[in-house]
Amino acid sequence: LSERLGGVFDRLTKQGSLSEEDVKTALREVRVALLEADVSLPVARNFIKAVEKKATGAAVTKSVTPGQQVVKIVHDELVSVLTGDEDPGKLKIDNPPAPILMVGLQGSGKTTTTAKLAKRLKERDGKRVLMASLDTNRPAAMEQLAILGSQIGVDTLPIVKGEDAVAIAKRAKTQASLGGYDVYMLDTAGRLHIDQELIAQAAAVRDVANPRETLLVVDGLTGQDAVNVAEEFDDKIGVSGVVLTRMDGDGRGGAALSMRAVTGKPIRFVGLGEKMDAIEEFHAERIAGRILGMGDIVSLVEKAQQTLEAEQAERMMKRFQKGQFNMNDLKMQLEQMQKMGGMESMLSMMPGAAKMQKQMGEAGMDDSILSRQVALINSMTKKERANPQVLQASRKKRIAKGAGLEVSELNKLLKQHRQMSDVMKKMGRMGKGGAMKQMMK
Ligand code: GDP
Ligand code: MG
């Protein structure tokens, strides 16, 4: 696909400005790209119309080719459609105990996502969370949540045989109040297909719990079906956000665009695997890049410039010149990378990166490594960050434990830091950091 688009854009490159014909030709390919990414037809059509308006006659800036310009307009439009809440990862959980209702089809990942979010709330926000399974159809489903709960150290409501979903919801509410919990999460039963009984039950639970958030969990691989499901749930139950699961697979993320365009509901989180840490808040840029699936150096450069604030860069450079590069510097760099949408998205913007990405995947390097490394640095004291040499076995153990990770992960991080620090020192010696300045431009 990238190749096909590449061809069109190469032809565009030879010319000076964006004619209507150029844009039409390029957008025909973009439309195919969208459909291949599972974006529904009407959504793709509307999207193309919007881009066409913006692109035709747009002034071509000197620094980019017309082809790149169209890509950028398409990319920006995707991001603007996909962007929902200001802060998708922030759940409304004031006024404890705050109920969160999880709904969705069977197998979409509700139970897994419930536990992932509970872990996140516990670790990031220091919240006390109670989880309750309302899946009375399948006793194993209740067990599943209890097992996950004990894995992540989050309480689950004791299972009482013979209760119906509404009764469990009521009990969860009472227990959450009495037990002084900040949040209680209701993991509902699903069906293979949407039906009236399922909806009626979810609605009854909603009326009892009065949830602050109702999160619809949708399998990111289902593509177009996802839109119908989202519409139905939102219509009948009211949804405050969507969680897209299985985005670690080869789903192209088109469902995200369709769902957002059709229901107007924000995508809040993205599930990236079966492990309890495999969730992150939604990044419009990442999904946009994925939907397009094409090399785009222009936006990579742009984003790098935006996120690396000039002042920070200046301060960092001064330190590097003196041969100083501590954990705070490393943390800043890791966070910078996260802001840019992570390694994968940075890679995906470089042409021919698919292979590299695959190699990284095989080497076990994925984006969760960034957040794990930041977590490790976060659990160091100020002194340790400024001076990582002081880290002895007992400190290492404490830090790893604080981040919920193994000491071996911490050792990897320290090694990486040492290597980078060596490089920085060398560069610092190279004429007043001229090389560094070049790099950061
Ligand atoms: P539920 O029926 O909606 O509660 O779905 P479950 O939470 O039981 O998940 C069904 C299966 O999907 C389980 O095997 C999960 O481990 C798996 N799963 C859930 N979320 C993800 C994800 O983001 N990525 C991957 N690869 N698997 C997931
Ligand atoms: Mg379940």
UniProtKB/TrEMBL annotation:
InterPro entries: AAA+_ATPase, P-loop_NTPase, Signal_recog_part_SRP54_M_sf, Signal_recog_particl_SRP54_hlx, Signal_recog_particle_SRP54_M, SRP, SRP54, SRP54_GTPase_dom. Its EC number is 3.6.5.4. Residues 266-279 form the SRP54-type proteins GTP-binding domain. GTP binds at residues 104-111, 187-191, 245-248. Keywords: Cytoplasm, GTP-binding, Hydrolase, Nucleotide-binding, Ribonucleoprotein, RNA-binding, Signal recognition particle. It is found in: Cell inner membrane; Cytoplasm. GO terms for biological process: SRP-dependent cotranslational protein targeting to membrane. The keyword Ribonucleoprotein applies. It is a peripheral membrane protein. Gene3D superfamilies: P-loop containing nucleotide triphosphate hydrolases, Signal recognition particle SRP54, nucleotide-binding domain, Signal recognition particle, SRP54 subunit, M-domain. It catalyses: GTP + H2O = GDP + phosphate + H(+). The keyword Ribosomal protein does not apply. It holds the Pfam family SRP54. GO terms for molecular function: 7S RNA binding; GTP binding; GTPase activity. Involved in targeting and insertion of nascent membrane proteins into the cytoplasmic membrane. Binds to the hydrophobic signal sequence of the ribosome-nascent chain (RNC) as it emerges from the ribosomes. The SRP-RNC complex is then targeted to the cytoplasmic membrane where it interacts with the SRP receptor FtsY. Interaction with FtsY leads to the transfer of the RNC complex to the Sec translocase for insertion into the membrane, the hydrolysis of GTP by both Ffh and FtsY, and the dissociation of the SRP-FtsY complex into the individual components. This is Signal recognition particle protein. It comes from Histidinibacterium aquaticum.
